[in-house]
Specification:
The chain has 254 residues and is α/β, with parallel strands linked by helices. It has ten helices and eleven strands. The strands form three sheets. It has a six-stranded mixed β-sheet, with helices on both faces.
Length: 254
């Protein structure tokens, strides 16, 4: 994303000249309070804003050299950019396995390859193997999130975009999901862009972090550096140290 501005209904500016880069094999976390513009940024990356009466009005977004604005969301998925939307959006009347299989549509799987790919998802998320014939609407929140991620993985992504994957989940489930994502990143080179309000878990697993506030990029840097700064914890991560009053300076390079 380069100097991107996004607007809803031709009037409400949600992003003000936001830039960020996800390099191959990286996990980049986009963090900030509710309403900071994180979801808008991810929808812009996946070219989903027009479906929500939104549009990118300035700047550009490129995925592997392609102009995202000139590529349909479906084609982006076929080209390796898959998004897991906020709220999981499982088909509640379908089983867990049927939900997973929808991720394979349009990707040219033959029967044997599809069975192997499905087994891989069950290896990654063993709980889904136990729930494969359960209606997704009856699964727990954590199982639905695993289903949504597994469905995206069946589309063979090179870049996985996740919007608030920890929302509404127990801390142990959140840690389990993020450990699996980190493992996929390290072992298979899967690039990940994740928007998270849970800054603690995002900083634990990300390589780089961008902090949004009211649609503006206010901080950017390596996750390990941001984790160490008490002033940043105070103003953006909700961990105020005693006696800290001044607003932090931005990191070098922002």
């Amino acid at each position: 994303m380069e100097d991107v501005e996004a607007v809803y209904n031709h009037a409400i500016v949600a992003l003000h000249h936001v830039s960020l880069t996800v390099r191959k094999g990286e996990i980049v976390a986009l963090i900030g309070a509710n309403g900071a513009g994180k979801s808008t940024a991810l929808k812009a990356v996946s070219n989903l804003l027009p479906a929500l009466r939104g549009q990118v009005t300035a700047g550009r977004i490129r995925y592997e050299g392609r102009d995202v604005s000139r590529t349909s969301p479906a084609d982006l998925v076929r080209q390796g950019l898959a998004q897991v939307l906020e709220g999981r959006h499982c088909f509640r009347s379908l089983t867990v396995e049927e939900n997973l299989l929808t991720g394979a549509l349009g990707h040219g799987y033959r029967r044997r390859k599809l069975a192997s790919a499905l087994d891989r998802i069950y290896d990654i998320f063993p709980r889904l193997a136990e729930k494969r014939q359960t209606l997704a609407g009856l699964a727990s929140g954590g199982e639905q999130q695993m289903t949504a991620i597994g469905r995206a993985l069946l589309s063979k992504p090179r870049l996985l975009v996740l919007d608030e994957p920890s929302m509404g989940l127990a801390p142990l489930t959140v840690q389990s999901i993020f450990r699996i994502l980190k493992q996929l990143n390290q072992e298979e080179g899967l690039s990940i862009l994740v928007a998270e309000q849970n800054s603690t878990v995002a900083l634990q697993y990300a390589d780089h972090v961008t902090v949004l506030e009211a649609g503006v990029t206010v901080l950017e840097g390596r996750a390990e550096e941001i984790r160490r700064r008490d002033d940043i914890k105070s103003f953006y991560l909700g961990e105020a140290p005693a006696g800290s009053q001044s607003r932090p300076e931005t990191l070098a390079g922002t």
